[in-house]
Amino acid sequence: MAEWKTEVFENEYLAADATDVHAIVSISCSGAGAAGQSGAAAEIIIVDTSGSMSSPPTKISSVRVAAAAAIDEIADGTYFAVIAGDNAAHVVTSMTVADARSRDAAKAAVRGLDASGGTAIGSWLNAATQLFGTVEAAQRHAILLTDGKNETERDSVLQQAVQGAQGVFQCDCRGVGADWDVNELRGIASALLGTVDIIAEPEQMADDFRAVMRASRGRGVADATLRVWSPQGAEVEFVRQVAPTIEDLTDRAQQTGPLVREFPTGSWGDESRDYHVSVRVPAKQLGAEQLVARVQLVVADEVVGQGLVKAVWSDDATLTTRINPAVAHYTGQTELASAIQEGLAAKAAGDDATATLKLGRAAKLAAETGDDAATNRLKRVVDIEDPETGTVRLKAKVSKLDEMALDTASTKTTRVR
Amino acid sequence: MTDGPTDTVATGTSCHACGESVGEVDQFCESCGAPLREQEAMVAVEPLATDRSNPPPGSNVARACSCGAEIDSDGYCTACGLRAPSERDHFSEQPAPDVAFVCDRGIVHARNEDAAALGVAEHHVVLVVCDGVSNAFDSDVASLAAACAARDVLTEADGSKSSSPAAVVEHWTDLHHDAAVAAQREAAATAAGVPAGENPPSSTYVAAVIDSGVLIAAWIGDSRCYWLPDVGPALQVSVDDSWATVQVNQGTAREVAEAGPQAHAITRWLGIDSPGGAPSTTSIALDGPGWVLVCSDGLWNYCSSAPNVAALLEQHVAVIGDDPLQLAGALCQWANDQGGHDNVTVALARVSGDVAADPDLDPTPRSA
User: Which long-range contacts (CB under 8 A, 24 or more apart) does A327-332 make?
Assistant: First the structure.
């Protein structure tokens, strides 16, 4: 049985007339077990086989190796399928139950993959949604690899496909090379509760696929929902996952009661996720104590973890002026992600002044929050002259891959030191 | 802070309070009315069993919020989120008809860190008030533990064998030292669970014993003991261990010193970081009927000098009579009406004045 631990980090003391409460609710799971234990699991491997995958030819050859590596990670008894995508989706292996024989057959099939045609990611997702619908599985996960932008179909087709896939399966997305669109893939991964990452060199693909499939196999908790209660008169300003990556959940809320909102969180393995909850309440009299949010994690209709976010109005400035370190840290990390994304967007649009300003802000925030990984990625795009003031210069020559790596990783956060 | 996954408390099929069988989904026991999902809320109020002879508090935990909605098992309203008042916020005791206290959160503070305990023995009465220092972790726990520990030492002690006032004073002065040691030990022990970076819990202390027509008081900090005779001048028996007292001793007018920004800085306290030292003690012969009033600064902030305290009490006696519980409650309410800026505790003992005492006893405080 999975064990859950919930912790709340906040300064509950508010000054007279203060209305805004910020808290970090940290939820961790241990003993999650293996995927499929609460009903079958299903996996689909979706690989781009468009014409561009043959230049260089190491891309398509790496896909053959990586798809086979992923198939090898699928546990006996798990349903799986393989889709090759170009202008349309081609089912390479239809939904089947994994065993030695079916894995061998699928590996033989992926060895024959060739590259031709365009990129229509929406059609690939639609095919996956349809294939998942052919089996009874409690948890459904896909890995999607592309090397290009969604060019062969209208964006609305892709957006409809993403909507159709939401709630059906989770999808980890990977981009190989430097010709795919970070924003596009991040949007798909985010909507489908998955991760996004860059595979800079085709040779790294097999290791990455293995890691993704192992992580998926370790998610023994098929589905969990974040439930947030807030009192009458309160406004939930935002609910944001802030670790391990930043995901704004606010707009995904489903109102399930007058005071209750629910947010899908997908499946869980042995891991910890932090949520930043911000609630605005009318100020109360000094001395009053109010519960401003009850944050629960719900698995199979059972509350497995709960954190209470409180407000206490006080005239003691030594209490009310403290900022909780976790709240400060993740506020900084969220701003860091925005600064990186906005800076890179400005740079791409040729607005060097804004890019310098935003990436300078990012360098400062990365230093302040102790995010050395972000600092190192920034250094490949800008020369950091003074991290304390955020003074940077755009590098004259920047590799596209380094820029994409910075963008892709912008939503990854570090924990509080 | 940690809030475990404990919201859904298994209720079982019998009431934890009376043992009657209850339905699985019942919120309250059909038989005794005890809330069936408030186990956690009860834990929070459990230490309030200051008098072991009384039924444990918790029996009257609020079930409905002032807004009309239900209170959840975690003690907060299910609709407006306001915390339901806990037993710790307001509690009282009246172990004998002529002795009582009321201890109240006040208005402004979120927690009630004051505490009090009373003891009534065959020949003596004990009143203890402790004021937990706000901004220190768990001061509410420290103050209650200290008050109960001192009360136990003083109540379980035998009265003076001799009725000679000098012998009575000597007897109780020694016991006051023991009681303060016990109170300090308990207050210091509560520091064990304090997270790093938090101030350890600390508390003031005042204890009064009335035996054979003599009042013997001991204190550490700025909680006070007054003698308010029906006839004759009222006296503040204790002398605050405070910065204000230091100022007064250096010639500053009392009203000025007590209104200064440092007025509430105390120079001595109980707790693991206590500066140490035995309690100051003093004694006074109670040569007629009157009231012994022991209180925290939540009261005397609004009414400090002994004549004013006597007048305040007299006004209330004129309106509601001389039941000490009613009076203590009325004085707490009066403090709240003045703004309730601090927790407030008022303990009162009515002295009949039947026992003749030596009028020569000097009320001047002496330090041990």
Answer: A327/A9, A327/A10, A327/A11, A327/A22, A327/A23, A327/A24, A327/A276, A329/A369, A329/A416, A329/A417, A330/A24, A330/A242, A330/A243, A330/A274, A330/A276, A330/A413, A330/A416, A331/A22, A331/A276, A332/A365, A332/A368, A332/A369
